[in-house]
Structures are given as C-alpha cells and as structure tokens.
Amino acid sequence: MSRIFLTILNKEFLSFLRSIGLVIVVLYSFTEDIYISGAGIQIKPRNVKIGYVDNTGGGISQKLLSHLHPPEFMPPKRFKSQRELNRAIFNKEIIVGLIFDEEFEKDYRQGKKAQLNLLLDSTAASQAFTTLSYLQNIVLDFSNLNLPIEIKSHKLFNQNSDNHSFMALTEMLSVITLLIVILTATVFVKEKEDGTWDIMLLMPVDPKLIIIAKSFSQILIVIAGVVLSLGFVVLTIFDTPINGSFWAFILLTFLYLFSGAGIGLFVAAVSRNVMQVAQLSIVIMMPLIFLSGAWTPIYAMHPILQALSVFSPLRYYIEGTESIFFRGTNFFDLYPYFIGVLILGIIFYWYGFRKIGRLF
C-alpha cells in the first residue's frame, strides 16, 4: 500500500515538474507576486497631490504648508480661487484641497477659533483619509493646546508601523489559498483533458488511495512554495518578524491546506477543463476570503456576516499566522486556530473526497 502511494506521489511530482507553465506560475506566485504586493502597495500617504487657496496674505498658512513635503506629499500647488481648486479636484489633478479664508490668520493670532476648510477626493479614500489624519496632527501642533494630560502612544506588534512586511505576509496567505484549490483540481481535470481518466479507472489500485495520493502531492508542493517564499521573500527581503514558532506555522499551514484540497476535489468533480477550474475556484474562494477578515476586520462586518465567518477556514489561518509572526503567541495558546482549521479541514476534505469519489 505504501509503495503504491509513494509511486503515485512520485508520478505527480514528475508531472508537475514537466509542466513548465505550471512551475512558472507557482514560482512567480510565491516570489515575484508577493514581492510586488509587499513593496508596491502603499497604505500611508505617498506623493499625494495637494492644492490650496490662500486668502490670508500672512505667514501662518505658509508655515503650515511647509510641513507637507516629500515623499508623503508633492509640493502644494496654489490656486487663485476655490472654483479653480474644485475644478482641479474634479479633474483628479489633486486629491486634497486646503482653503485659508481671509480671517484665518487674524483669528489664529487673536486666539480665536481659526477655521481651515478642507476638500477631499474620496474616490481615493485610503490615501485621502490617511492624509486627513496627518493634517489633523499638523494642525494640532500649531494649536498650542494647554491640556492637563500627556498622550503617549505605544505601538504593539509592529513598532515601526511598517506595512510592507504585513502586506507581504497577507499576500502569501492569499496565494496559498488560491494555489492549493487550483493545483488540486487541475491534477484530476488534466486526466480528463488528456484522455487518461478511463485508464486511471482501470488501474488495479484502490480509488481512495489515488485520490489521497494525488491531493497530498499538491499539499507538499504548496508547502515547498511556502518555505521558498519565507526564505527568499517574506523573512529576507521584508525582514518580517517571526516571534513565535516556525514549526507551529508550518503545522497550521499543513492542516489548513486540507481545507483547500477538499475544495479543489469538489471543483475537480464538477469541472470539465482547466478553464472551468479557474472560474469555479475564484467563485468559491472569494466569499471565503471576504469572510476571513483579510479585507475587512471581522468586528466591522454585519452581524450575519460575522456569524458566517466561523465557516471560513482562512479566518482561523490568518488569525493564527498573525499571532505566530507578530504576537509571538505560545504554541499551546494557538489551540483555537488549530481546532478551527482542523475541524473545517476534515469537513471540507471529506465532502470533496466523497464528491470526486463518485466518479471512480
């Protein structure tokens, strides 16, 4: 039994290596794609275009504007009137507009409530509202408020507020999710496309062993991709901290991959070609990714969606991975994530196993 299992396993590894296109896709996904996401996606302001209208004729407005400098902001561009400023925002020439009215400097020097009008292009919501928080801090520095309290901020888990390592790790989890589904489904669907499905059915081998060996081979391929990505991109280029146990992450990943493999078996059972595999994989995985909290925090979702999120194995995988990498959570304290991934992995794999087993 074990000899047959290893023979099928070896055959799938050789088939994967002979498929140059598939090898390139996997290598690209675990290296270049993760690097682009980590290095290219910016959450904080970067080269934000700002315009302003200054009717004060004084120096306070210019001192305030002098705090807006590269690389966060482009040099502020002056407009003659609010109408021109509005037109520039409408034409996407600028994202943020500042309007200093005639009484701004006078009210500021007299200790009155000086009003600074602000226009934001909210179609660029992330950059615009992050810029708003920057501007609020700059204005507060000018306010000279004499408050009887002192605010001290302590940044936990990501002291440098570096989003590059976080984005790289998040992208790696998304790549793992999509690849395990697509690779597992493709292994079986290619048998249909190549016309070798009937030959496989005539093999004097237990069909259950064939299903397990084929799906398990893809789990090992993805595990190898994860190690490659961690070694050359996530931990090396982006210097992502791993404060917990590396082997706890590998074990959590291994358990999680059974959920994806189960979905892949289901997709293989209902697909006729590789194109259908890609389409169905995206249709099925997008809701699971959305419910995982990867895009929107769980607590910010509608109560119904929060309840449905418990059925997304990616939720437990993401929370467990973040706890391992950033929080350094003890191995035994990770049991909620291991239990969630294990239970859903068993359910998904069992269902996919039964679904494709009917074709044998």
TrEMBL record:
Q: Where in the cell is it found?
A: Cell membrane
Q: What is this protein called?
A: ABC-2 type transport system permease protein
- Please classify the protein's predominant subcellular localization into one broad category: membrane
Q: Which terms in the GO cellular component ontology are assigned? A: plasma membrane
Instruction: Write out the similarity annotation.
Output: Belongs to the ABC-2 integral membrane protein family.
- Give the record's membrane topology: Multi-pass membrane protein
A Pfam family assignment: ABC2_membrane_3
